C-alpha cells in the first residue's frame, strides 16, 4: 500500500514546518503555494527558545543561527529613563538548548526547509498553485485549485495564512477583535546601538506620546510604531512621517535610509475549530494576534509540531482520530489562554493611554527583573517554554520528535 498522502496549503513558516513534520513521519506531502515563488516580505523575525528546541531535531537551527542574530537579552525601556527592566535568557540554559531569542526573518526558515524538500522524495512543492477551498470527506479530504483541478488526499492542512481560503470554504468563524491602532514598521541600516545606552537587540519602549518596539535583525534595526486614526496609511508611510518617527529615536543631521516600510492592521482572532474531519487548520489560518512578544509565528510552528505529528499518527493508523481532535482543541485553548493573553497584556502595558497605568506596568516589569525568581518565571512564559511544556504529554503521545 502506498503511504498516506497529505496536502499542505501555504508555504509560509507553518506550512513548511508542517510539511517537514508530516514527511518525517512517513506521509507523502504535496505542498501547494499560491505565490509564484517564496514570499520574502519582512514579517515575523523572532524565534523563541521553545520553538528552536522543537525545530532542533530537523537539523535547521544551526543554519538559521548562521543567517540570524542571537539575542540573549530583551529589555523594557522608557524613552526618557532608558532601561527599566532587562531579562537575560541565558539563565534558562538548564531548560532549553537555545537560551536566547533568535532574530531571523521567517522567510529564511522557509528557504532552508524548501531547500531540504528538494532532496526528499516524499515532498512535492508546487508554486503558483492557489487553493480555493477544501472539502472534508470523513476519511479523506480534497482541495480545489484555482486551475479547476480537484486534488484528493487523505488529509488537507490549511496553513494558508490569516485570510485562509480553506477556513472560509469550511464556513468557520474567526471571531475576535481588531485593535484601533495600525502598526507601522520601518527598517533602517543605521546603527542605533551606537547612540542609545545599553540597547538590547529586542526593546519594548514606553512613552506617553509614542511607544515603540525596537528590534535588531542581522542587517537592520526595525522599529514598530502605533498609527492612530489621525493618519492615513499613505501619510504614515510617507518619507516625511518615516523620518520624523526615526529622528525621534535618535536625532541626526542627515536623513535616515529606510530599507523597508510597511503598515498593517492588528487583530486577535481564533477560528471556531482547528479540525474539521480530515482538514486541519494551523498558524495564522487558525489564530492571529498582535505581534508584541513575537508569538504569532511561533505559536503557528507549535501547532505544526503537535498537529502535524498527530495527523501523521492517525493517517498511519497508529492513533485514534479522537486524539487528533483532542490535540486540535488543546492548540486552540493554548492560542486563547497563552498567546492571546500574553500578547494582549504586552499591548496593554505598552500602549495604555493613561500615564499612571503605563507607569504601573513599567514598575511591575522592573520589580520582576530585579527578583531572580520572578524574572525566571516571566522568561519561562515570554520564551514560550511554558506553552510547549503545556503540550509535552500530547507531543509524546503523537510521537513528535523533540529534543527534551
Ligand atoms: C506585515 C506583517 C508583519 C508581521 N510582523 C510580525 C512580527 O513582527 N512578529 C510576529 O510574531 N508576527 C508578525 N506577523 C505575523 C506573522 O508573520 C505570522 O504569524 C506568520 O507569518 C504565520 O505563518 P503562517 O505560515 O501561518 O502564514 P503566512 O506566513 O501568512 O503564510 C501563508 C502562506 O500561504 C500562502 N497562501 C495564502 N493563501 C493561499 C491559497 N489560497 N492557496 C495557496 N497558498 C496560499 C501565502 O502566499 C503564504 O506563503 C506579521 C504579519 C504581517 C502581515
Question: Explain this structure to me?
Answer:
The protein is an alpha+beta fold. The chain has a domain at 5-70 and 103-175 and 268-351 and 391-398: FAD/NAD(P)-binding domain, CATH 3.50.50.60. It has 13 helices and 20 strands. It has helices spanning 13-24, 49-55, 61-67, 106-118, 165-169, 233-237, 239-249, 296-316, 321-351, 355-370, 372-382, 385-389, 392-398, and strands at residues 5-9, 28-32, 46-47, 69-71, 73-78, 82-88, 101-103, 123-126, 131-136, 141-145, 150-153, 155-158, 174-188, 202-206, 212-216, 221-227, 260-271, 275-276, 279-281, 287-288. α8 runs antiparallel to α9. The longest helix is centred in the last third of the chain and has 31 residues, at 321-351. The two termini are 34 Å apart. The model has no long low-confidence stretch (mean pLDDT 94). Residues 9-15, 32-35, 39, 43-45, 106, 130-131, 159-161, 165, 262, 264, 283-284, 291, 294, 296-297, 300 line the site of flavin-adenine dinucleotide.
Distance between the termini: 34 Å
CATH topology of one domain: FAD/NAD(P)-binding domain
Spatial order of the strands in the main sheet?
Answer: 6-5-14-15-16-13-17-20
* Cα-based radius of gyration, to the nearest Å: 21 Å
Q: Helix share of residues?
A: 25-40%
Shape: globular
